[in-house]
């Protein structure tokens, strides 16, 4: 089990950030994901494994002008 933005979420062995984001409708909005105290940027989502019992925070992309 992991926590995503403070809510319990299912977890399985070998789960990557990309796998997790596939469960969310607007996964394209997230530019960075924080796992425990480590920030991971989009180019590494497919290869980065999420350990069990992790605290995961989805950080949305912000644009302005």
Give an overview of the whole structure.
With 65 residues, this protein is mainly beta. It has a single domain, classed as Beta-grasp domain (Ubiquitin-like (UB roll)), CATH 3.10.20. The chain has 1 helix and 5 strands; from the N terminus they run ββαβββ. It has a 5-stranded mixed beta sheet, with no helix packed on it. Strand 3 and strand 4 form a beta hairpin. It is globular. It starts with a strand and ends in a 5-residue tail after the last strand. The model has no long low-confidence stretch (mean pLDDT 92).
What tags apply to this protein structure?
single chain; 65 residues; mainly beta; Ubiquitin-like (UB roll); five-stranded mixed β-sheet; 8% helix; globular
